């Protein structure tokens, strides 16, 4: 009985440490297996959404995180000078890899 309890405790500890280090911002939280969520960030009074720009950051195992997912970077990639609204997209797979994309709409 004591041996079974030790195995259970060790299994819980291992699961805790292997349980996904690559997290991503999401309005509903991260899914244990997959996260694929899109949501709003900001809206302005500008009109027109002729152009769209995306900027993405990535995280691998919580060890390496890289990229520029700023609104400014997305504006440059889309050739946008006036922002109408900004959305984001959050993705994660098993907590091993995650990426966050800022999506800017405007003129």
Give the CA-based shape. Answer: elongated
Q: How is the largest sheet built, in terms of strand order?
A: 1-4-5-2-3
Order of helices and strands: HEEEHEE
Let me know the average pLDDT.
82
Helix coverage percent: 10-25%
Helix/strand structural class: alpha+beta
Number of helical stretches of at least 4 residues: 2
| Number of discrete domains | 1
Low-confidence stretches are none
Give me the count of strands.
5
Report how far apart the termini are: 68 Å
Cα Rg: 19 Å
What percent strand?
A: 35-45%
List strands and helices in order, with pairings.
Blueprint: H1 2-18, E1 34-43, E2 51-60, E3 64-67, H2 71-78, E4 83-93, E5 97-106
Antiparallel strand pairs: 1-4, 2-3, 2-5, 4-5
List the keywords.
alpha+beta; 2 helices
What does it look like?
- The structure is a single chain.
- The protein has 107 residues and is an alpha+beta fold.
- It has one domain.
- Helix content is 23%, strand content 42%.
- Strand 4 and strand 5 form a beta hairpin.
- The longest helix is centred in the N-terminal third of the chain and has 17 residues.
Short description:
With 107 residues, the protein is an alpha+beta fold. It contains 2 helices and 5 strands; from the N terminus they run H-E-E-E-H-E-E.
């Amino acid at each position: 009985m004591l041996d079974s309890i030790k195995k259970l405790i060790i299994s819980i500890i291992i699961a805790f440490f292997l349980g996904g280090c690559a997290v991503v911002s999401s309005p509903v939280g991260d899914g244990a297996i997959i996260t694929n969520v899109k949501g709003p960030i900001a809206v302005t009074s500008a009109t027109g959404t002729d152009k769209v720009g995306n900027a993405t950051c990535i995280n691998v195992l919580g060890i390496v995180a890289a990229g520029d997912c700023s609104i400014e970077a997305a504006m440059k990639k889309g050739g946008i000078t006036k922002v109408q609204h900004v959305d984001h997209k959050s993705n994660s797979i098993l907590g091993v890899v995650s990426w966050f994309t800022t999506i800017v709409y405007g003129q």
